[in-house]
Every structure is written in structure tokens, then in C-alpha cells.
Write a structure and sequence with these properties.
By secondary structure, this protein is α/β, with parallel strands linked by helices. The chain is built from 15 helices and 16 strands. The strands form two sheets. A nine-stranded mixed β-sheet has the order 14-13-12-11-7-10-9-8-16. Helix 5 (112-125) runs antiparallel to helix 15.
């Protein structure tokens, strides 16, 4: 296999997931040649990890405004985009225009205009764009795909899908840049893109009509006041009020978070430890979405970001029976611990109820690694020899677009109070 060179733009919490494996497990097929970010301190920290943790050489660093110079000087085969969501399209499009293929962290982008610009750029440049959906590779999610593909419950008629974020992981989206909907598209784009992609993947179909409701009901200052909270703060660092807040994130008590964010904030003013009960939160924490798919299946989906446990419950009703799934995940704070903790499973259960036979439990083969064992398989598929895969888990730019279009349509529906036809959002070449 030909060795490929990679440049990473965006060295925040998600970047190490890629470069840590790229320079170790996949060093025979991959080479990291540059880092790009708005923040030099954060790039320096990444280089520190490369040298001390991974025994790799340091690589050249470029500020965000030097992105084109980076491409010209190091000539990467592939640009890996892990920046703030609202800037994904800038780097994806320019990298392709400069002759590079692209791998983008999910979500591919945050709204229909940026999505259209990306699709047009792929068509115009002929370059490849891939979106990293690790949940597809998790063994329990692959098993669901297998059961439906193999016609175990016949044609899927309806789905009830409930995703729960707990008060450790869920709260973290309300401390960070994600709390501004302009940056993330809200949780219906940033987080639910995983879930909506899984639905497309499981059903082998695409969304047609979306209707949604959502609101901020738990986080934010007004909601806290209603519950009797009287002490508030803007950020945890240096705040006495934060000492008594179980939702506070103390950057100075976690060396990794300190070096990545607290020591770096003098450059760009980004505060990683904002109060989840502060003002200026423009995303929802309680969401309900109804989707009709092109194959006529319908889904009822909820996402709540303040639950006592983390994971999902999903039920598929089909013409030959029913599948019930309950998955409990280990909670985590982004960049606050080991990579393998992200999406790690605490429990898993899949049960099939045939119409004409006794119900039975489905075995799920245990695998090591984050997201229930999906992360190593995704990384192998990206940086190593591609998997021979009857389930077609590798996600293209089209998959990336369809996954976010459900969330984008849901956001529009929340704004207007009306159902949204997904085909009205973009045009396909």
C-alpha cells in the first residue's frame, strides 16, 4: 500500500484520536507532515505529545491564515479537518481546490448553504471527501445493520429512537463553543449527525420529510433560576461559586485540559470551562424529531442532554417482527481522559421478537477500543488496508450530507413550526 502524507487542521480535543494512531499503528502506511490551528500553544502541545508520548518527530506548524502556504510547502496527500464545525467547509473546499483529498470529522458542516458549497466543490474538483462515522463500526450497530439487511424482521415500518446524554458528557456541550448554534448547528447537527447517519445506514434509505420541536429546558441561567439556584459565574477557573457546582469543569485540575486550553486561552480568548448555567446559550438541550424516509419507514427520535445515564434505546417494528436494543455507554468529558473511554460500553442488549417464533437475544462480539470497538475499525479503514465490508461502513461526502440534512431540516422546522422537505434544502448534481 502506498504511504500517504497527512496534514491536520484543528488540534483541539478530537485531533489526537487521529494523529496518535496515524504515527504509531499506521506508521507504515501514513505520515504526519504538518499541523494547522488558530492557536500556536495548542499546536505546540500536540507536538509535545508527538515527541514525548508517541516517540515521533515534531512537525511544522502553521496558523490558520497560513493554510494555503502549508499545502504548498508540505504537499499533503490528505487534509484531515477537525476544526470548529462552522469552519469545516472552508478547509474542505480549499484543500480540494489545492489538489488534496479530505477526511472530515463529523458533522461535515452545519447548514444547507455550506453543505451545498462542499458538494459543488467535490463535483468541481473530483477530489475524495470522507466523513468519519465511527458509530457505524461499533459491533452492536453493525449487528443491527446485519439483522435488518438479512430480513430478520422484514420491512421496517416504524422506529422509536431515544438517545440520552448524561449530566457529565451532555453538560460538556454547554461549556464549549458548541453552545453557540452558529458554531455547531446545535446538538441536532453536531451530535445527532451520528444518530441520523446510523438511521440512514440501518434502513438503507434517506430522509424525506422532517418535523421537529426543541428548546433549552435544563441548562442556561433562566432555567437554573427557576430551580432556585442563586450563585452564578461565567467560568469555573478562579470562581468561588464554581467550587460548589457539580457541573463545573476545573481545567487546572486536569493537566491535559490545562495545557490544551487554560494555557492556550491568552492567544484566542477561547474559554473551555464556561458555566452551563450561564447566559448566551443558543442551542437546545431537549429535542424531538419525526422523520419519514424515502422507503416509507417513519422514525420518532428524542435527544435529551441532562439524563442520569448515557446511551440509547431503539426499537424497530417490521413486517416479520421487532428488534429492541438498549446500549449503555461510559460517560466522558472530551479530552479529559483516555481516548478509549469515548463511547465505551457499560452494557449492551439486542433482542429479536419474531412474529411467528420465540424471542431471542442476539450475541454481540466484544471488541476493544472506543465507541464499543468501532474506533479501531474506523482507523484501520482510513489509514490501513480498507476493510472488505458487506455492510458498506465507509462514509462518503454524500453520506456526510444526508446525515446532517436531517438535523438541518429539524433546525428549520423548529424555527418555522412547519415540516420540511429534505429535497428542498440542496440540489444534487
Amino acid at each position: 500500500m502506498t504511504k500517504k502524507s497527512y496534514a491536520i487542521v484543528g488540534t483541539g480535543g478530537r485531533a489526537e484520536f487521529f494523529y496518535g494512531e496515524l504515527v504509531t499503528t499506521f506508521q507504515e502506511t501514513s505520515e504526519l507532515v504538518a499541523l494547522c490551528d488558530v492557536n500556536q500553544t495548542r499546536m505546540d502541545f500536540a507536538n509535545h505529545l508527538l515527541a514525548d508520548k508517541y516517540q515521533y518527530h515534531t512537525v511544522p506548524t502553521y496558523k490558520a491564515h497560513e493554510f494555503e502556504r502549508m499545502i504548498a510547502e508540505v504537499k499533503p496527500d490528505v487534509v484531515l479537518v477537525t476544526t470548529v464545525d462552522r469552519t469545516h467547509h472552508d478547509y474542505i473546499i480549499r484543500a480540494m481546490e489545492l489538489g488534496c483529498d479530505v477526511i472530515s470529522e463529523k458533522p461535515m458542516t452545519v447548514d444547507e448553504e455550506k453543505c451545498q458549497a462542499i458538494l459543488d466543490a467535490v463535483e468541481r474538483t473530483g477530489r475524495k471527501l470522507r466523513v468519519t462515522f465511527n458509530y457505524r463500526y461499533a459491533p452492536h450497530n453493525t449487528k443491527i445493520r446485519e439483522l435488518i439487511m438479512d430480513d430478520v424482521i422484514g420491512e421496517v415500518i416504524s422506529v422509536n429512537f431515544e438517545w440520552l446524554l448524561n449530566t457529565e458528557h451532555g453538560a460538556d456541550y454547554f461549556r464549549r463553543w458548541h453552545r453557540d448554534k452558529r458554531n455547531s448547528g446545535g446538538l441536532l447537527v453536531h451530535k445527532s449527525t451520528h444518530h441520523f447517519d446510523l438511521m440512514n445506514f440501518w434502513l438503507g434509505s434517506k430522509p424525506a420529510t422532517v418535523y421537529a420541536q426543541g428548546d433549552l429546558r435544563f441548562y442556561g441561567k433562566e432555567n437554573a433560576e427557576k430551580r432556585g439556584v442563586t450563585e452564578f459565574y461565567s467560568r469555573a477557573y478562579g470562581s468561588k461559586a464554581a467550587e460548589n457546582d457539580p457541573f463545573a469543569l476545573h481545567l487546572d485540575r486536569n493537566e491535559r485540559l490545562k495545557q490544551m486550553y487554560l494555557d492556550a486561552e491568552h492567544e484566542d480568548g477561547y474559554l473551555r470551562d464556561q458555566s452551563v448555567f450561564g447566559d448566551n446559550i443558543s442551542i437546545e438541550d431537549s429535542m424531538h424529531v419525526m422523520v419519514k424516509y424515502r422507503n416509507k419507514a417513519v422514525m420518532n427520535y428524542t435527544l435529551n442532554a441532562y439524563m442520569p445515564w448515557e446511551g440509547f434505546i431503539i426499537v424497530f417494528n417490521g413486517t416479520k417482527g421487532r428488534i429492541e436494543v438498549r446500549i449503555t455507554e461510559k460517560s466522558y468529558v472530551n479530552s479529559g481522559g483516555e481516548k478509549a473511554d469515548e463511547g465505551a460500553l457499560k452494557s449492551k442488549h439486542i433482542r429479536v421478537y419474531p412474529i411467528d417464533a420465540e424471542p431471542y437475544d442476539v450475541e454481540i462480539v466484544e471488541q476493544a477500543g472506543g465507541h464499543g470497538g468501532g474506533d479501531p475499525l474506523l482507523l484501520q479503514d482510513i489509514f490501513g488496508e480498507p476493510l472488505e465490508d458487506r455492510f458498506q461502513r465507509a462514509a462518503s461526502h454524500q453520506d456526510g450530507a444526508w446525515s446532517i440534512l436531517t438535523g438541518i431540516a429539524a433546525n428549520r422546522s423548529i424555527r418555522t413550526g412547519q415540516p420540511v422537505q429534505v429535497d428542498d434544502l440542496i440540489r444534487w448534481s
